[in-house]
Amino acid sequence: MPLLRLRGVSKQYGTVQALAPLDLDIYPRDFVAMLGPSGCGKTTLLRMIGGFIPPSSGSIEIAGTDVTPLGPERRPTNMVFQGYGLFPHMNVEQNVGYGLRIQKRPREEIAERVADALRLVQLMELAKRTTEQLSGGQQQRVALARALVMRPKVLLLDEPLAALDLKLRHAMQDELRRIHHEIGGTFVFVTHDQGEALALANRIAVMHNGRLEQVGTAEDIYVLPQTRFVATFIGEANVFDGTRASGTVTLQAGPRLASTGPDGAVAAIVRPEDLGILEEGETRDHIVEAVIEDAIFLGSQLRYRLRGLNGESLLIHTRPGKGKTHSIDDKVRTGWCNGDHRLVSA
After folding, report:
1. What's the average model confidence in pLDDT over 164-173?
2. Domains along the chain with CATH numbers
3. What is the pLDDT of residues 190-212, one digit of tens each?
4. What order of strands is seen across the sheet that includes strand 256-258?
5. Cα separation of 214 and 267, whole Å?
6. Chain segment 96-123, per-residue pLDDT in tens
7. CA–CA gap between residue 183 and residue 231 (Å, rounded)
């Protein structure tokens, strides 16, 4: 059974629809990423789950209980905000125990739960420090401990790593994975960083223009995108526009693909690692002629940018030393095999 169930949840601000009605199930032990560009509605959705914003329609259930009319203080959730929201006049353990003191928990229970939370985020030795004496990563851990100490059924994280530099962000990703594995909790986090979503989440909910585009595992989202937006937002993709008629898709670049489905405009998605530069005598199921516009050596990867004869912008990733190295302005043939493309509506 889902731990968190959303049915027909939407948000309207006057005439502006911030979030179209959507359904979503999140299960115990899930680590779900709400992924999308700025303004797509992901933070609005997270705040509705937490009770900070009332939905315009629909219902929100947690562990079988309808929490739609309840405020954040009455929901079994807790949120880690992007800005951390730590109290500068309190030390680390006082910050972590603040919610328990508000609940008037016994002093011994507070001390024990705060110690457990600090051990979990590996900050026991910093318990007496003020927040001003902490690094950004340490402050993030305090905010995480303050949320976890309340033992929420669902932990909500609003772009929690956005303020950290790249190296520290990667380190905190490792910490979040470790903590999630250790406590077996249910985490839902918002991010616009596709790499972060792929690194952390076991399921990803891709959002665009206030709509839920696709929900699935990271592999499903990458290998089997259901829409053009998902294909181009998650990773990089070559998009070949075409038209389906009578069971055949004819691409503007030339190839023809067998395909069932309604007639009309479609696009074939081919990932850069599946599109190769063909040497003399090589062939593929689908061939496109192109000219190399750029070649970049990135250590473990050689990245080619090409222009198809019909104007398509193409991207190819290959390993250095694998086959001939090509130069700018070289005319080449590129191609892919059946099974390496995904057709989506245009």
Report:
1. 84
2. 4-229 (3.40.50.300), 236-345 (2.40.50.140)
3. 999 998 999 999 999 999 999 99
4. 256-258, 248-251, 238-245, 264-270, 341-345
5. 17
6. 999 999 999 999 999 999 999 999 999 9
7. 33
Phi, psi (5° rounding) for residue 168?
-70, -35
- What's the residue count for the chain? 346
| Cα–Cα distance measured from residue 283 to residue 177, given in angstroms and rounded to the nearest whole number | 43
Q: What's the order of all strands across the beta sheet hosting 211-216?
A: 77-80, 154-158, 187-191, 31-35, 203-208, 211-216
* Alpha-carbon torsion, ordered 334, 337, 340, 344, to 10 deg: 80
Partners of 334 in the β-ladder: 277, 288
Residue in 290, 314, 317 with CA at minimum distance from that of residue 241: 314
299 or 15: which carries more pLDDT confidence? 15
Q: Which helix (H) or strand (E) holds 311?
A: none
Both structure tokens of 125: 């030795």
Tell me what pLDDT residue 94 has: 94
Q: What is the pTM assigned to this prediction? A: 0.88
